[in-house]
Amino acid sequence: EVKRLEGHPNLSKIKQISVIDVTAGYDILSYNGVNSEKLDRFIEVKSYLGSPHFYWSQNEIEKARLYEDKYCIYLIDASMVDDPEYEPQRLIFWRVINGF
């Protein structure tokens, strides 16, 4: 996130929520873009080995519905995580369920 938002004046406000509250329904609170003035991206991080797959809890689904296009799932291929050029696949829940 820090790399993606390089140049944002408030990078220090990005929070790993999962270490504070495991019931939040997302792992990271961040900014949608460099020009975002408020924390407006809710990120659930899922890792996998092999073919992309993950378990999505009912709580996470409910938070995705609540935050709509501000909720993202970052899929991390665990076999690629040490590659400095690797970027996770990003799914935006609202677009997925609405066919965008």
Strand share of the residues?
Answer: 15-25%
Head-to-tail CA distance between termini: 23 Å
| Physical arrangement of strands within the biggest beta sheet | 1-2-3-4-5
Q: Provide the helix percentage.
A: 10-25%
User: From the alpha-carbon coordinates, what is the Rg to the nearest angstrom?
Assistant: 14 Å
The residue-averaged pLDDT reads: 90
Largest sheet: number of strands, sense, barrel closure: 5 strands, mixed
Assembly status: single chain
Itemize the secondary structure elements and their pairings.
Layout: E1 15-16, E2 28-30, E3 41-48, H1 58-67, E4 71-77, E5 89-92, H2 93-97
Parallel strand pairs: 3-4
Antiparallel strand pairs: 1-2, 2-3, 4-5
Structural overview:
The chain is an alpha+beta fold and 100 residues long. It has a five-stranded mixed beta sheet. It is globular, with a radius of gyration of 14 Å. The mean pLDDT is 90.
Fill in the keyword field for this structure.
100 residues, alpha+beta
Summarize the entry for a quick read.
With about 100 residues, the protein is of the alpha+beta class. The protein has helices spanning about 60-65, 95; strands at about 15, 30, 40-50, 70-75, 90. It contains two helices and five strands; from the N terminus they run E-E-E-H-E-E-H.
